[in-house]
Amino acid sequence: MKTIMTVPPELVWNRTLVSHTSGTCTSVNFVLAARNRDSSLLMDEKLDHIVRLLEGEKDALLGWMSSKDCCDYVAISDRTLYRKIKEGWITVAYLENKQRYFRKQDVLNLYIRYHQKTPKHMP
């Protein structure tokens, strides 16, 4: 591995990618210009999204979830979900007959942001 510059460890995120088809592992380091708690959560969401795309789980996150399914997956109440909508944590993808639907990717991002960890299974 070729090192171009020395970076303080607090600015580096390390992720290990595992190929589901071949079982091989690859370690990837991401370097940030600055890091604080708020950017840390947002960056974790983005990095997890990149990792999922690289692992080939893109198709699993296509589709929609109802408000009830979203609450069940994230383990929150209806009231908490509506509060998170107002706070901008998740957006309603579309309404049909007064029923709210969310993109699965947005629900996964809500889970990661709310619990500050990656779930064991995808929505």
Descriptive overview:
This protein has helices spanning about 35-55, 65-75, 80-85, 105-115; strands spanning about 10-20, 25-30, 65, 95, 100-105. The chain has about 120 residues and is an alpha+beta fold. A three-stranded antiparallel beta sheet has the order 3-5-4. The protein has a two-stranded antiparallel sheet with strand order 1-2. β1 (about 10-20) and β2 (about 25-30) form a beta hairpin.
Keywords:
123 residues; alpha+beta; three-stranded antiparallel β-sheet; 4 helices; 5 strands; 39% helix; globular
Distance between the termini: 36 Å
How many strand units?
Answer: 5
| Residue share in helix | 25-40%
Instruction: Give me the number of helical elements.
Output: 4
Strand order of the largest sheet: 3-5-4
Mean of residue pLDDT values = 74
Q: Label the overall shape.
A: globular
Beta-strand content bin: 15-25%
Sketch the topology as an H/E string, one letter per element: EEHEHHEEH
Question: What are the segments in which pLDDT stays under 50 over at least 5 consecutive residues?
Answer: none
Gyration radius, in Å:
17 Å
User: How would a textbook summarize the main sheet?
Assistant: 3 strands, antiparallel
Oligomer: single chain
Give the class from helix and strand content and strand pairing. Answer: alpha+beta
